[in-house]
Amino acid sequence: MKKIDENYFKNSKTESSKMTDIQDIVNKGEQILWRGKPKKSAFILGSIFNMLPIGLIWLLFDGAFIAGIIATGSLKSMPVGVII
To answer: Which pTM does this prediction carry?
Structure first.
């Protein structure tokens, strides 16, 4: 296993120690399979799908709570804020 020179990654003013390209740190025998910018929509959709179960549970709870208030007719007896 090849040991990495930690001084290579330190921020200094000399040109020899600046990292300019990923090719500078790729070891022998390694390949870069893809270069480019990731699609932001893939990350956004992934986040939405991860949070979807929580959102659905929240929606069911709130819907049942609101339906219970409406069904019992207790909406008229709810306290109203005082406007000064």
So the answer is: 0.42
